[in-house]
Amino acid sequence: MIDILEITSLQNPLIKDIRSLDRKKDRWEKQLFIIEGIKLIQEALSSRLDLKYILYSEKLLTTNEGTKFYEDIKDEENLLKVSNQVFREISNTESPQGVIGVGKFDIREIEEITKSEKSLFIYLDGIQDPGNMGTIIRSGDAFNIGGIILGGGCVDPYNPKVVRSTMGSIFRLPLYFCNNSLEFINKMRKSNFNIISSDLDGNPLSKELLREKSIVIIGNEARGVDKDLLQLSNIRVRIPMPGKAESLNAGVAASIIMYEAMQARNLEL
After folding, report:
1. In angstroms, rounded to a whole number, what is the distance separating the alpha carbons of residues 208 and 260?
2. This prediction's pTM
C-alpha cells in the first residue's frame, strides 16, 4: 500500500471547505455536495460524476468490503487520506464506512425540457421532506422519466439526507430548478404539455391521461398543490384508495403516478 499524506487537522483549509458543504448556501456557491459511503461513491464513479475529492480514513480498511473498495480507488488522483478524528467530524452518518466523496453538480437550463425526447416530467411544489424528495428522485430514475423540476420551497436535493435516500439516482436523473412557477407552467402549456395536478378532490387517475406529453405537479406535504398552479392545470387527479387511509405521502403518490405513466406508454420495468 502506498503511503499517502494524512490530513489530521480540522483547521486544514480543505477540511474547512468540505465541512461548509453542510450548509445549502455554501453548496450552491461552490456547486459541490457531499457523497458518503461505499455504495454511493461506486454509483457516482459508474455514472461518471465529476468527483473533486475522495477522502478516506483507516476506518475504511477495517472491513473486507472497505478494503476491496480501496483497491478500486487507490489510484484515483483525487484520493486523500484523513485521520479517523477528522473523518468523524465531516461525516453525516451514524455508522460511517470511512469514505466520503465531494461531487460537482451542474445547473441545467430549464429550456431543455421542451427539447427532451421524454414525455413525462414531475414538478415539485414545496416538497420539504428529504425522504420524500429522495423517493421521488429514485422513482423518477427507475421509471425513466424526463426529469424532476423543483419549484419554490423545496428541500435542497443536494442535502446529504436527500442524496443518501436517492441511492445513487441523483447522479443519473436530470434535475431542473424553477424560480417562477406560474410563468414556467404557462410556458409549458404553450409548448403543448398537459399539466396534471395531484389533488384529493380530483378525478380518478387513469392511464389514458398519462399517455400525452405531461408535467405532473406534486404538492407540499401539508397544503397540497398551490391554488394558482391548480387553476393553471388541465386536469386534477387523485389516486383511488379503497382502504381507509385518507392520503398517501408525496413520495408514494408521485411514484404511483410515474409507474402508471410508464405502463401507459407500454415501457418495461
Report:
1. 10
2. 0.93
